[in-house]
User: Which sequence fits this backbone?
């Protein structure tokens, strides 16, 4: 045999023999032998080094009582479809790898209360650079028993805990527990931990989702328009489901957001982090979408939002206080009316846009009071807002007493031209307004080069108007006093 062929064979043999069985998890969750496990618990394996998916093989979850397989997770087909909160045709990952952790996500309803289960897996379903995963074959290698019964119906305070110590292990399961049409206030206390899930709920009012720790209670998932593409209608209704289960929702509802609260009243989200982990350039990927009404009374307080394009979309009446919103393109958008107080908006890209607001003439848009518009290091020349006036002639973005860093460009505002053959937009009803914009060193911001369609509100001639825009009740309507409503204890 020629020498170079011998060398190729030798190298191939070395590559094969250097990858051998023996890659085992250092930690299983729930631990083998655990009892009182929530049926909604995602199963997790932790390794000493970063795993990747193998070329073939399956994880299987067995019901120990019937010896039947209740869920099969194949490493060659990690994307499946399910219904979330009654909205069908959601893509989701059956296997998620994050750093050294692998999460197994069986389909909804696969596990039930009062059953014992065990997990098996083929050798090689996972691997690292030198080893392949050792098979799980014995029914005793990884087994657990679920809680005998669910929480008592009608509870008004529930705990969600990723470590399994709460009433539920996922936020979605806790929301599913709340009956359709609910108007009784219900608080979901979400303990510290990372919850890797897409969330959707609708027709359930008076819901408060309260994190235990703003920075350590994290909901994270890589959902986006490429993964769950669909048109979006913030006011889409629902159609009855003949099966008697949760109603089917209209196909025009956005599915690309990580967290979607649809047509709900008196919804409060507080003291946690929402992170859409879609990478930059990965298309539209909201961390939060609120599709409400102009009398919805939504409160969002002390929340950190992270994504890139379209980080938050707010449609309907909403009051946001002391929040951080980070993104790069149109990362605050919607129809409003929305009032932001003492929030931070942080841009991650130069020459991009903080907002794109599409309110009609019948309600206000987005108003910012004592907020800060800043950028990541070296980010410059952003626009506070952009709009197509021929499509959205009543777009309203008002800044009062806000701090603008060098991330905000001199023009401040942008009007996009109409396509060829389309009449140009009328800007007389456009409200791109500022009052008392300041620099981070508390000097008056240089607004001398602002877009001519924008306006600087002046004192004393505009004092009455300025006072109105400092008042969230004026902006949001409905005689609602959100500052009073937002005072609550964790």
Assistant:
């Amino acid at each position: 045999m020629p020498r170079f062929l011998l060398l190729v064979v030798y190298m191939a043999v070395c590559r094969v023999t250097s990858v051998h069985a023996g890659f085992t998890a250092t930690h299983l969750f729930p631990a083998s032998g655990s009892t009182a496990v929530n049926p909604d618990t995602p199963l997790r394996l932790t390794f000493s080094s970063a795993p990747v998916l193998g070329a073939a093989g399956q994880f299987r979850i067995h019901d120990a009582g019937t010896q039947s397989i209740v869920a099969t997770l194949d490493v060659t087909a990690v994307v499946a479809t399910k219904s979330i909160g009654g909205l069908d045709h959601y893509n989701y990952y059956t296997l998620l790898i994050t750093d050294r952790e692998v999460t197994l996500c069986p389909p909804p309803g696969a596990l039930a209360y009062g059953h014992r289960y065990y997990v098996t897996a083929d050798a090689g379903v996972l691997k690292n650079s030198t080893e392949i995963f050792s098979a799980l074959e014995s029914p005793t290698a990884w087994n657990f028993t679920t809680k005998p019964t669910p929480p008592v119906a009608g509870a008004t305070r529930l705990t969600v805990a990723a470590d399994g110590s709460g009433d539920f292990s996922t936020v979605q399961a806790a929301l599913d527990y709340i009956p359709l049409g609910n108007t009784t206030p219900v608080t979901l206390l979400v303990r510290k931990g990372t919850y890797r899930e897409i969330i959707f709920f609708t027709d359930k009012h008076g819901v408060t989702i309260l994190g235990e720790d703003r920075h350590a209670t994290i909901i994270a998932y890589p959902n986006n328009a490429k993964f769950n593409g669909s048109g979006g209608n913030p006011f889409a209704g629902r159609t009855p489901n003949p099966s008697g289960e949760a109603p089917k929702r209209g196909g025009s509802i956005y599915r690309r957001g990580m967290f979607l609260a649809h047509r709900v009243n008196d919804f409060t989200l507080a003291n946690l982090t929402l992170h859409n982990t879609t990478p930059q350039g990965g298309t539209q990927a909201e961390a939060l979408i609120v599709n409400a009404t102009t009398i919805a009374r939504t409160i969002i307080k002390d929340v950190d939002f992270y994504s890139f394009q379209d980080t938050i979309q707010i449609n309907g009446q909403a009051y946001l206080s002391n929040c951080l919103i980070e993104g790069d393109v149109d990362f605050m958008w919607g129809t409003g009316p929305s009032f932001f107080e003492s929030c931070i908006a942080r841009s991650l890209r130069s020459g991009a846009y903080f907002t794109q607001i599409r309110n009609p003439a019948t309600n206000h848009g987005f108003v910012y009071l004592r907020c800060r518009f800043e950028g990541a290091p070296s980010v410059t020349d952003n626009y506070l807002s952009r709009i197509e006036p021929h499509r959205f002639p009543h777009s309203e973005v008002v800044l009062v007493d806000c701090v603008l860093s060098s991330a905000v460009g001199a023009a401040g505002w942008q009007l996009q031209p109409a396509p060829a053959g389309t009449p140009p937009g009328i800007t007389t009803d456009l409200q791109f307004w500022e009052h008392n914009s300041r620099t981070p060193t508390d000097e008056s911001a240089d607004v001398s080069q602002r877009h001519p369609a924008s306006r600087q509100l002046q004192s004393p001639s505009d004092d009455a108007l300025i006072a109105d825009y400092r008042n969230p009740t004026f902006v949001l309507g409905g005689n609602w006093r959100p500052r009073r409503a937002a005072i609550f204890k964790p």
Observations:
- The mean pLDDT is 91.
- Residues 27 and 46 are 5 Å apart (CA to CA).
